[in-house]
């Protein structure tokens, strides 16, 4: 049975019935363009509940060195926003259930045009879009375009977010909110789960949709700890590092995919336990 994009994220969180969703992040086009869709399918088989698909950009200012390198490789391969959407369309040919969220920056979307992008994203089967550098104060038209196409606008909250900012995002966000668990870039290793739990408690005073946590989750143990307090665990840098190391060693897409899937499966098992 096919599920429309505006229902997939909601249905996934309902199906999990309190267990935290596992959301791996990968950069589209890395380790190769042709490996992206097989990698997405392998991660679903390994336990991914939602796929967060990075849109490569030349200046990924929120990302640490691991994801920056992946973005540089993908940009060098010519991976555009349109190519990302084409690959989501390809993924949807054999998976109509798993939600796909795009994560990226405003420039490629502005270049395409906000309304044109929203229409194309909805048609491709994208479920949500997280645009890192587009604040809610400047997003009214963009949010309207996305919601019209049944695509959830997803926003970031941070340790420095005020109550006012939390409420503003609560008023417009759909799908889930993404809590950046620390002050820094992706892949930082200073996660304090007690602080995360306190912040999520604050966020839930304003936000009624699920709260995902990312940045700084690097292994099964930290994922398991965050899963006890959050609705979703987002994990990217360590997964991409695993892909990167396997490809550097073997020069083979399939081996890199298998290594990434095996690593994610260990995280999935820890969360389920």
How would you characterize this protein structure?
The two termini are 29 Å apart. Helices cover 50% and strands 14% of the residues. It has one domain: Alpha-Beta Barrel (TIM Barrel), CATH 3.20.20. Strand 8 (211-214), helix 10 and strand 9 (232-235) form a beta-alpha-beta unit. It has 273 residues and is of the alpha/beta class. The longest helix has 20 residues, at 253-272. Helix 2 runs parallel beside helix 12. The chain is globular and about 50 Å long. It has a 9-stranded parallel β-sheet with strand order 5-4-3-2-1-9-8-7-6, with helices on both faces. It has helices at 5-16, 36-45, 65-76, 81-92, 106-112, 114-124, 140-148, 163-172, 193-204, 220-227, 237-250, 253-272; strands at 21-27, 51-54, 100-104, 128-131, 152-154, 156-157, 177-180, 211-214, 232-235. It is built from 12 helices and 9 strands.
């Amino acid at each position: 049975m096919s599920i429309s994009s505006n229902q997939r994220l909601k249905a996934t969180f309902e199906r999990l019935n309190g267990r935290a969703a596992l959301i791996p992040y990968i950069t589209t086009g890395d380790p190769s363009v042709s490996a992206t869709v097989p990698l997405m399918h392998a991660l679903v088989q390994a336990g991914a509940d939602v796929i967060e698909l990075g849109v490569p950009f030349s200046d990924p200012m929120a990302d640490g060195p691991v994801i920056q390198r992946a973005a540089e490789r993908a940009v060098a391969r010519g991976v555009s926003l349109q190519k990302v959407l084409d690959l989501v369309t390809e993924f949807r040919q054999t998976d109509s259930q798993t939600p796909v969220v795009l994560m990226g920056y405003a420039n490629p979307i502005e270049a395409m045009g906000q309304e044109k992008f929203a229409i194309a994203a909805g048609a491709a089967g994208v479920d949500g879009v997280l645009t890192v550098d587009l604040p809610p104060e400047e997003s009214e038209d963009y949010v309207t375009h996305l919601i019209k196409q049944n695509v959830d606008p997803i926003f970031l909250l941070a340790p420095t977010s005020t109550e006012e900012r939390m409420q503003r995002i609560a008023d417009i966000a759909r799908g889930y909110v993404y809590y950046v668990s620390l002050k820094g870039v992706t892949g930082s290793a200073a996660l304090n789960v007690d602080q995360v739990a306190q912040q999520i408690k604050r966020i839930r005073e304003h936000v009624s949709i699920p709260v995902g946590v990312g940045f700084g989750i690097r292994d099964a143990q930290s994922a398991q700890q965050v899963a006890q307090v959050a609705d979703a665990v987002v994990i990217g840098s360590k997964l991409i590092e695993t892909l990167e190391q396997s490809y550097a060693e073997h020069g083979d897409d399939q081996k890199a995919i298998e290594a990434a899937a095996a690593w994610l499966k260990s995280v999935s098992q820890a969360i389920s336990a």
